[in-house]
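#onboarding

Welcome to the new folks! Below is a worked example of what a typical request in this channel looks like: someone posts a single protein sequence, and someone else replies with the predicted structure as tokens. Don't worry about understanding the tokens yet, we'll cover that in week two.

Example request:
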Amino acid sequence: MSLLVSSAALAQIENSPDLRDVQAARNIAMGGAYEALGYGAEVIGGNPAALSLYKRYQIEASGAWDIPQGYGFGSLAVADSTNPLAAGIQYTFATFGGPERRWAHVTTLDLSYAIADVFHIGIATRHQVLVGASNTNSVTMNAGILVRPIEYLSIGLSGHNLISVFNRDVTRYFVASIAGKFFQQLSPVFDLRMDFNQVDPRFAFHGGIEWLIAQTWPVRIGYQYDGIANHQYISAGAGWFNEGSGVDIAYRHEIGGQEGRLISLTLKLQL
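Example response:
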């Protein structure tokens, strides 16, 4: 009987959001596809190479809450990419896990370097403290490359949690990403997340598009099919944008599954 209860609990954990869902509102609205975009400070937790794509000082605060799932997080990030070696730091507090609740404190330091503004390489060191049903006090790392052959196209590849910490919430995965920007208004994005931790590889597909109206009002939609954590989402969002600063809001709706309903807000200031 206890074995059945344990299996049910693990299945529910598998179907609940986790640390991979820590994203800014813009990215949540676009189906969770963001690793090749490089504009917001959320790249610190994504592909670290994308931090050097744009020259700016960035301060960004994000938060999200999914009431049916009991999942939420808050994060604060600061980035400086005005120098040849771009740097950024992000702190996140998250709570998740359903009946086996965990609380996470995650701090990530990102360094990125651009070669001729075409090739970007980056590395990030991440320290996580998890308490609750899954405990760890450990350090891991992310690494990535990003290529922008022309102004309107960027292609990236990143590896996450490359140092094994033997914790079910900090597993290794890889992301291939592509993003475009056309007519200074339309930004289609696509991420393919790959998990090779089991005998059969598992994949998650993220896609979305942003329409920047009058260079001020972004409108976004997205879709995500996650074969790793067994999710399927549709999402949408909007915001206000002025010279790099602004506010974004997003809503993510789970199709079936645990019927997650997530709302996210991001405030960003560019100097």
